[in-house]
Structure formats: C-alpha cells, structure tokens
Amino acid sequence: MIKISNLTKQFNSHKSLNNVNIEFQKNDHIALMGPNGAGKTTLIRSIMGYYHPTSGEILINGKDPIKNRTEVLKIISFVPQLPPPIKLNLDELIKYIERSSNVNKELILHYANEMKLDIKSNLYKSFFKLSGGMKQKMLIAISLARKSDIIIYDEPTANLDPKARDDFYRLLKEDKNEKISLFVTHRLEEVKKIVNRQVYMDLGEIVINKKIKEIL
Ligand SMILES: Nc1ncnc2c1ncn2[C@@H]1O[C@H](COP(=O)(O)OP(=O)(O)OP(=O)(O)O)[C@@H](O)[C@H]1O
User: Fold this and answer.
1) 20 CA to centre of ligand 1 in angstroms
2) Which tens digits make up the pLDDT trace of 29-69?
3) Domain residues of the chain, as ranges?
4) If you measure from the C-alpha of residue 2 to the centroid of ligand 1, how many angstroms do you get, rounded to a whole number?
C-alpha cells in the first residue's frame, strides 16, 4: 500500500506538491494525469525516495522510502520516460538484474520475446546503443519479470510503435500478479482498458481522484 499524508515538496519558493493526501491499494491501476508541470514526476520520485519531503509523510507498505530506500525499491519497478544511459550490454544487464533482484532470467527473455525484442542478436550490444523503442521494450520486459508489488510507468509507450504498444497493454492485461500499477499518461484513452482509477493533478494538488469503470 502507498499512503501519502499531507505531502508538500518545495523547490526554492515553488511548491511542486502542495499538501497531497492519497492512498493506493493493491489492485489499484491508476492513470496519473495532469498538465506539464503539475507535479506528477515529483510525486512518483517522492514515492521512490528520490526527494525528501518538505513536510508530510509517505509510507510504502508501512516503510519510509527515504529511511528504507533499498527495501522499498525492491518492491517497486519503474520504467522512466527517458531510459537511463546504462553501459552494460544486454547479457550483463540481464545477469545483473537476475542477481540483484532475484528475477528469473527466462521470464525476462519471455517478456522480451513477447515485446518482439530480439535479444539474441543484440545480446552483446550496450543497452545505451539500442534504439529508443528497444530500450523501452527491454525495461518493460524487466519490469514485468520482476513481479513487483508496485509498478510505475512514466509515459512508457512514448517510443513504441503501435504494434509494440498493443503488445505492452496485452501483457499488462494478462498479468495476474496482484499489484499497484501507476501510469503517468496524457492519454486516458490509451490506458483505459488497464486502469480502474484516475488521478488528475494540477499545480501540485490532486484535483480529481475517482474510480473509473471496471477494467474492460
Ligand atoms: N529538481 C527540481 N528542481 C526545481 N524545480 C523542480 C524540480 N523538479 C520539478 N520541479 C518543478 O516542479 C514542478 C512540477 O514538475 P514535475 O516534473 O513534477 O511536473 P510533471 O507533472 O511531471 O510535468 P510533465 O508532464 O511536464 O512531465 C515544475 O514547476 C518544475 O519546474
């Protein structure tokens, strides 16, 4: 469970988050929306313990994400909008994830295959030399294979072609692992088959927080 209480995050004099109160429970699949600068990224970074709150509290399964960062990050999978510049090749990356997160390598290969990412031909290529879409597919495959309690996707389909987008949404729909999934998106239409809740932010505040119709 994610419990956010009276969370304010201020950068200099600007409040990026202004007294945010919200809870997410298992089986909440949320479209996190709002205009540029609304505070969405600040909120997800705070959840992952990247930022110290100016005031207020965040608890992830009862744990503070700053004091218990390693523990909290073990149960969160995050796919950013811009993939990080990882120098490892795919073989090294998969082995690293296998060791550090106890993820089954076969499961990563399975999801990569489902995302139509040809791992075999790219096994010894550095992650950062893959195309934008290939990087995204790799990170998605890892995020699904980790079977985390919480998955956070920040505009994950920005670099994906339409077929890959369909594959991504199909895999999420088929994934029966109980979890919280949070999608930062500007297009509700695109995620409406996989979300059951909409949260809309503006000027650092939550202005809409509602259940939407059951997942189709
Ligand atoms: N590290 C930072 N230092 C200073 N200001 C920041 C920092 N991170 C975010 N902000 C400010 O906080 C506000 C919210 O930014 P944030 O990135 O959370 O918005 P967002 O909703 O994710 O926007 P977008 O849709 O453009 O990604 C903006 O005014 C931004 O300039």
Assistant:
1) 15
2) 999 999 999 999 999 999 999 999 999 999 999 999 999 99
3) 2-211
4) 21
Q: What would the two tokens of residue 188 be?
A: 């509700």
Tokens of 167: 């594959």
What residues flank ligand 1, with Cβ below 6 Å?
A: 11, 14, 16, 34, 36-42
Predicted complex ipTM: 0.97
Fill in the DSSP letter of residue 21.
Answer: E
Compute the distance between CA of residue 24 and CA of residue 6 in angstroms, rounded to an integer. Answer: 15
Token match 């090749």: residue? 89
In angstroms, the CA 93 to CA 123 distance is: 10
CATH topology of domain 2-211: Rossmann fold (3.40.50)
Residues in the chain: 216
Give the closest residue (by CA) to ligand 1 atom 2: 11
pTM, two decimal places: 0.93
